[in-house]
Amino acid sequence: MTEDLTYAAAGVSLEAADAVVERLKGAVRSTVRPGVIDAHGGFAGLLALNGLGYTDPVLVVGTDGVGTKLELHREAGSLHAAGIDCVGMCVNDILCVGAEPLLFLDYISVGRLDPEIVATLVEGIADGCRQAGAALLGGETAEHPGVMDESSLDLAGFALGIVERDQMIDGSKVTAGDVVIGIASSGLHANGFSLVRRVVERAGGLHNAPADLLAPTAIYAADLRALRAAVDVHALAHITGGGIEGNAPRALPDGCGMVVDPAAWPRPAVVQWLSDQGVEEGELRRVFNLGVGMIAVVAPAAEASALAALRATGREAWTIGVIEAGAGVRYSA
Q: Across the beta sheet with 57-65, what order do the strands follow?
């Protein structure tokens, strides 16, 4: 065979790919949950729905990535956290309709495969899956020499969940006077980092940024499980890019708006740092979660029980607003 007409000479290492697969077997096994069928290395992941206790199940799907935060994770050597970010950004979306996470798939694309980088990412993904209670049921690592730069890296994921049709959270129960509960984020999660990277550059680098800048995305599966066991949840909103004003209205029915008190919760250090670096308040509100990663809407009578249930999981939560007649989000100050 001509030397330069091999896969290796074209830039793809099958040996490196095999080494990654072998290393990650334990991480994948650690995420096995009820319903998973052992396919013995087959071409697809398998999960049986019968036996999970559902009568009229609805499947719920979500997909997302880590975005440009991934570049800062690489620079900081925190790629394990990037794997958690990927799971969190997908799983938190499907939680908003009341779904129980079942499985997760990842997709990693690289210019040149570095087994240590890919293994660290997938070990972080497995960590996130354990937090979510989802099985890491498959994934793909694609090496793209000649198409991507050798140093290029991207990461995306897909989550599948399940919920009983009559237990779906669709916002239809929301009425004026309901209470808005803010559930604490772990920081910026994985949104707004194109702006953050510019701020980091102007501030002189990561060593001048606060410690919580790259904190992995909070995964709210256990928190919302406890909340739903304690109270009837009328609506849930995952606060991602676009902030509260861009995401909360997606969970509300026509005719309902939200009034939010921005002084009702403490902001993470990274939000104050962005402000100190010159990002204006209106832009902070428009882009970032400001320390509230998930919003729950409950009846006024359920307020105390909702807060107690969330805090019992170790997650901080606050009453941050109220539902009113109208539309959109209005800040009280």
A: 57-65, 153-164, 100-110, 135-143
Written as six digits, the tokens of 333 are 């100050």
Q: Please answer whether residues 86 and 119 qualify as being in contact, where contact means their C-beta atoms are separated by less than 8 angstroms.
A: no
This model's pTM is above 0.90: yes
H-state helical runs in 32-114: 69-76, 79-95
Q: Which amino acid is at 313?
A: T
Q: What is the assigned CATH class of domain 179-331? A: alpha beta
* Residue-range domain boundaries for the chain: 14-167, 179-331
Measure the CA angle with vertex 299, ends 242 and 219; round to 5°: 45
Contact 188, 196 (CB under 8 A): yes
Please determine, looking at this structure, whether the domain spanning 14-167 carries the CATH number 3.30.1330.10: yes
The two domains 14-167 and 179-331 share their CATH topology (first three levels equal): no
Burial class (CB in 10 A: 0-12, 13-18, 19+), 239: buried
Inter-helix orientation angle 221-230/115-132, to 10°: 10
Q: What CA–CA distance (Å, rounded) separates 291 from 103?
A: 27
SS3 304: helix
List the chain pLDDT tens, one digit each, 333 residues.
556 755 566 666 667 767 767 777 778 788 989 999 886 667 888 999 998 999 999 999 999 999 999 999 999 999 999 999 999 999 999 999 999 999 999 999 999 989 899 999 999 999 999 999 999 999 999 999 889 999 899 999 999 999 999 999 999 999 999 999 999 999 999 999 999 999 999 999 999 999 999 999 999 999 999 999 999 999 999 999 999 999 999 999 999 999 999 999 999 999 999 999 999 999 999 999 999 999 999 999 999 999 999 999 999 999 999 999 999 999 998
The residue among 197, 198, 320, 191 whose CA lies nearest residue 243 is: 191
